[in-house]
Amino acid sequence: MSQSWSPSSWKSKPIVQDVVYESPEQFDNVLNKLNRLPPLVSATEIENLKKQLKEAALGNSFLLQGGDCAELFDYCSQEPIEAKLKVLLQMSLVLTWGARTPVVRMARMAGQYAKPRSSDNVNGYDPKDRKPDPERLLGAYFHSTATLNYVRTLLDSGFADLHEPSQWNLSHVRSENVKREYQTIVSQLTDSLDFMRTVGADNNTSLASVDFFVSHEALLLDYEQSLTRWMSTPKGEKKWYNAGAHFLWIGDRTRQPENAHVEYMRGIENPVGIKVGPTTVPDDLINLLNVINPSKEIGKITLITRFGAANVEKYLPQHIEAVRQSGHIPVWVCDPMHGNTKTASANLKTRHFVDIIQELSQTFRVHKENKSKLNGVHFELTGDSVTECIGGSMDLTDKDLSSNYQTYCDPRLNYEQSLDVAFLIAKYYENERRSKDFPNL
């Protein structure tokens, strides 16, 4: 590194989105406890993810990242974990089949507890629990540990084996034509899996187990510092890793090159995500890339674009060109959620499925027109049948939102809408092979 770095060097920089606790002594006691607790992930797992992200950046695989906007401690339970894991695995199978390429699976999970003003690792949602409580940081660690442990248990027990058609429920699809299209994809996918199993091409284990990585936004830097470890790499070297997740990202408000969050991120070996929006100046983005990834390591940086459906054509081409000229090769990912949030009746935040698909469509097209390639997608989603986003094959309307509106933060795609997106992306790749455009809704 051009300048000296330590896990605490961020404290010398300006910081935004910080939390102030009433008792510094209690806060220090909690951080000291976290410092002594074991890592959640290993350096080997992190380096494995970085290798897979390198392949995504080079166009040889595709990244699927998804999960809750803000995780709750209450989600650390059997059914929510299984539901979220199932939808991500099913989406990844559909994408693998459609794109004819390996899929890197990464969840916003086992640590996505921090939000700027209120979240489970800061305070409670009840007005009487609004005071920041440092003990909640310990709660975040232990809930992350339990969640990740159960995910690993499920994957080791064959939960990833979703070749059975009975696992794919398409009863939610209202249009018979769309249902037939989806069913055709599922039938072809499961037939392919069964054929591989019959001829032994699955090696008895590859269909029943997968690599699965966890990620969260690096927002509370004291917490992130407490989970930063000097760990041995697979090659026997010692380096600094954030051992609380495989992958961390910084948001639209915390990506200033001279500020604390960027200072922290530039020193860890984990792959790093950067949100890129309409306010991102191309020159500032290149400066940021040079600070965090001066060696231009492929697989280190993921750029997560979130412009909104109406802004992709205006902003994305200049970002693609600036990055190309810089010599950096990132993983280009589309987040079609954050730029498309609207307010529905009853003052509920929502997102329209058609806007989400439009941003995805335009992002695929703009990358192709600019001799680039979209390498992944990033969704806020849940494995449950909530009613938070309008549209999709269920034809949810504004009036349906109140029937099962559960989010404590931003609206998420439900299980059915998440599969809708995966099927549409699969259709895009199928049509691309036939030189057709992305299907519009």
Automatic annotation (TrEMBL):
Mn(2+) binds at residues 69, 338, 380, 410. Pathway: Metabolic intermediate biosynthesis; chorismate biosynthesis; chorismate from D-erythrose 4-phosphate and phosphoenolpyruvate: step 1/7. One of its GO terms (biological process) is amino acid biosynthetic process. One of its GO terms (molecular function) is 3-deoxy-7-phosphoheptulonate synthase activity. Its cofactor is Mn(2+); Co(2+); Cd(2+). The keyword Transferase applies. Its EC number is 2.5.1.54. Phosphoenolpyruvate binds at residues 108, 275, 306. It comes from the Eukaryota. This is Phospho-2-dehydro-3-deoxyheptonate aldolase. Binds 1 divalent cation per subunit. The enzyme is active with manganese, cobalt or cadmium ions. Belongs to the class-II DAHP synthase family. Keywords: Amino-acid biosynthesis, Aromatic amino acid biosynthesis, Cadmium, Cobalt, Manganese, Transferase. It comes from Rhizopus stolonifer.
